[in-house]
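Researcher: Sequence recovery benchmark, item below. Answer with residues only.
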């Protein structure tokens, strides 16, 4: 006699498959972070309870403020640029048929290049004796050490956009491909032009994708530290001194109490941002 497959059995099976991942999340993420929260209220040496003193020291630290300001500035500039440029490019690639695959592969190529190779490429371009300065000398202009000036920030922005555009383009194309072609055909029969189709068919159906791609791009933005660290080391130009540099320097100095407090503050800030974005997304969906 066959056993009846009830919803309760389905739930038990689902939890059985999820158990290894949930156990790993508990052991390797949640419990260590709980210990980080505990350490943020104690001195690293001696274990003396200091309450909120570690948080006060972090918030009053000049290096923390500078790194936080640079990171926020980087996110506020890069995320809108990345989302806008990748979306426009995806719409263009989705509208052509000839060389679309070749162009998509070209945009994805930077993702396959190792970070170390990317760093070598940027150094060849923007080093004191790099290609950019050599071209300026040919034009009888004076070059400079670009990574030790304010231009370093914009070079890092360009590196991030170049490295991550392909990933976002693929996500946008997948979202655009999910829109039924019949909707566009019906609109064209009714006399709608390309702009009207884009405004009244494409954009309204991209709202859910904007949330997903925006969150993924936000997470990927924190990985730009690798390029900045490999190009300029522990202490780069002040314009590209990010929170990741600060955490790395505190870790090498074993300043555990500051690092723990800053990690908790950062986790709270990121959680609040994601909750607000999720609330905005749900509000947009409910208003439709």
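Model:
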């Amino acid at each position: 006699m066959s056993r009846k497959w009830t919803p309760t059995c389905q739930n038990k099976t689902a939890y059985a498959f999820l158990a290894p991942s949930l156990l790993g999340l508990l052991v390797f993420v949640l419990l260590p972070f709980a210990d980080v929260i505990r350490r943020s209220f104690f001195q690293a040496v001696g274990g003396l309870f200091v309450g909120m003193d570690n948080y006060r020291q972090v918030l009053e630290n000049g290096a923390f403020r500078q790194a936080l300001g640079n990171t926020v500035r980087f996110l506020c500039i890069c995320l809108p640029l990345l989302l806008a440029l990748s979306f426009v490019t995806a719409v263009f690639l989705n509208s052509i048929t000839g060389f679309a695959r070749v162009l998509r592969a070209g945009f994805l190529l930077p993702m396959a290049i190792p970070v170390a190779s990317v760093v070598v490429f940027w150094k060849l371009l923007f080093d004191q004796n790099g290609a950019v300065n050599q071209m300026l000398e040919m034009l009888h202009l004076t070059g400079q050490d670009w990574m030790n000036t304010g231009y370093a920030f914009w070079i890092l922005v360009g590196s991030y956009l170049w490295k991550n555009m392909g990933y976002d383009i693929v996500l946008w194309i997948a979202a655009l491909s999910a829109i039924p072609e019949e909707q566009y055909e019906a609109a064209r029969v009714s006399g709608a032009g390309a702009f009207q189709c884009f405004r009244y068919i494409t954009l309204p159906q991209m709202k859910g994708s904007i949330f997903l791609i925006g969150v993924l791009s936000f997470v990927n933005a924190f990985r730009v530290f690798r390029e900045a660290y490999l190009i300029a080391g522990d202490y780069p130009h002040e314009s590209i001194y990010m929170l990741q540099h600060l955490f790395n320097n505190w870790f090498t100095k074993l300043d555990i109490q500051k690092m723990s407090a800053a990690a908790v503050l950062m986790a709270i800030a990121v959680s609040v941002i994601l909750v607000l974005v999720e609330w905005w997304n749900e509000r947009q969906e409910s208003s439709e």
